[in-house]
Amino acid sequence: MAETATVAGQTRYDAVAYPATVFSATHPERLATIARLHGLVAPPVETARVLEIGGGDGVNLIGMAAAYPNATFYNFDLSAAAIARGAALIRATGLTNIRMEVGDILDAVGSLEGPFDYVIAHGVYAWVPEHVRPAVMQLIGRVLAPEGIAFISYNALPGGHLRRVIRDLLFHHVGHIEDPVEKMQRAHDVLLDFGRARENDRPVMAGMREVARPMMRQQIAVLYHDELGGEWHPQALSDVVATANAAGLAFLNDASPALAYDGLPGNDDDDAAIVRAAQTSDFGSMIFFHQTLLVRAGRRPSRRLVVDAMRSLFVASSVQRLGPDIFKFEQSDFVVGDADLADTLEMLGKVWPRRVPIADLAATDDALEALFKLWTAEVVTLHAVPLPGTAEPGARPLASPLARAQIAIGQQNIYTLDHRVIAMEAAGPRAFLALLDGSRDRAQLATDWAASGHGDEVDVDAALRQLAAAVLILA
Ligand SMILES: C[S@@+](CC[C@H](N)C(=O)[O-])C[C@H]1O[C@@H](n2cnc3c(N)ncnc32)[C@H](O)[C@@H]1O
What we know:
This protein is α/β, with parallel strands linked by helices. It contains 18 helices and 15 strands. Helices cover 41% and strands 15% of the residues.
C-alpha cells in the first residue's frame, strides 16, 4: 500500500474524509478546449471515456456523469471509506455511466484496462510517496488513448519551499497530537495567530504571513491532509515533465488559462526549451500550484495559438457593462477600447452562463486574439462544447439526477450541470427541483407544486426558467 496506514487497513483519508467538490479545470471540455487551441484533435466530450486516479469519493466525476449520459466514467481510490461514500451517492442518482472501486495506483499500473480519452489525477501526485509518482505517469502512459489528454495537478516548486516553512511550524506545534480533530483545530489556531500582522514586521515576515493566510482559509480537513499529511512533496514542473517523458508522455500546457502562454509562447522552440521557459517563469512567480496537461509523445501541438480553431469553440462571460467602455468583472472594473469587442462582452454578460458559438460572432483574427487574451485574464471562458442541459425544459422536465440526489440527502451546495457549485438553501427551490424527475407534465407539476406548500412563491413556468438559468435542467 502506498499510504501509511493509521488503523489496520485504514488510510488517513478513511479516518478523516477529504472534502469533496468539483473542479472545472479537470473537466474534459476544458482539456479539449486547450488541445484545440494548440491545433490538436481532442476526443469528443459527449462520448468520452474518462478515468480519475485517486478521485476520493468521485464527486468530480459524478458531476460530469450527470451532465453527459453518453460518456463513461471510472474512478478508483485507495480509501475504502471515500469509495463507499461515492458509491452511495451514485446509487442515489441512479446514474449507470459511472463506476468506482477501491484500488491502488501501484496495482492499477499493471492491470487497469484502457483506453481512456481523458485521465485526471487531481491533488494526488504531490501527496504520494516517491515510488508512486512514476507509477502515476506509467499508468497514464499505458491507458491514455492515442488522442487522449491527461490532467495532473500538484503543489509546485518553488512556492512549495515557502509553504514548507509554514508546514514545519505546524508540525512543531501539533506534530505530537494524535487526535485528528484536535490536531486540525490546533493547527488552524496556530495559523490564525501566525497570520496576524505584527508591528515592526520585517518584509520577509510580512511575506511569510501572506503565505500562511490562504492556508488558514482552507477547510480544516483540507488542512489536515494537504498541510499535515505525512506525504507532501511539491514538485518542479521540469521534474514532472521529465517523469512524464519517461512514460511516453509530453507536455501540452497548464489547464489554468492564466498560464496558457506556458504552452503557447508563440515561437517554434522545441519541447525541452518550452518546458525550460515555463520553469523559468515559475521561478519568477514563485508558483505554488500547477495543473499540467499531458499528451502522448509524438503528437505535435502547435506552440502558436491556432486562431482558426477558436471558431469551433464557444465563449461565455459573466461581465457586466457599466458604461460605454467600462466593464465590471468580479470585483474589478476594466476598460475595453474596441467598440465591437465591448458589444460582444455586453451580449455575453446578458446571456451568461449560456455559451455562444464563436463562429456566430463572425470575428476577425485580431478580434479572436483579443478574446484569447481575455480568456487568459479569466474574463471570458472558452468551451469545446455548448452549455450542457437545456434552457427550454421539455414536456416532462427532468432535472440533474445529481442535484436531485443531493436535495434528497439534504446537501446545500448543489453541483450544476456545467460543473459549478451553487448554494441552494431555500426550501421552495429545493422542493421544486425534487419534483423534476421526468415523470410530471406541466399540469401535474402545477398540482404537486401547489400541494408542496410553496406553490404561492412562484409559478411553475417561472420556477422552471430559474432552474434552467442555474443550469440544473437536463431535458
Ligand atoms: C489530497 S486527496 C485528493 C482527492 C481528490 N482527488 C481531490 O482532489 O479532492 C488524495 C487522494 O489520493 C488517494 N490516494 C493516495 N494514494 C493512493 C494510491 N496509491 N492509489 C489510489 N489512490 C491513492 C487518497 O486516498 C486520496 O483520496
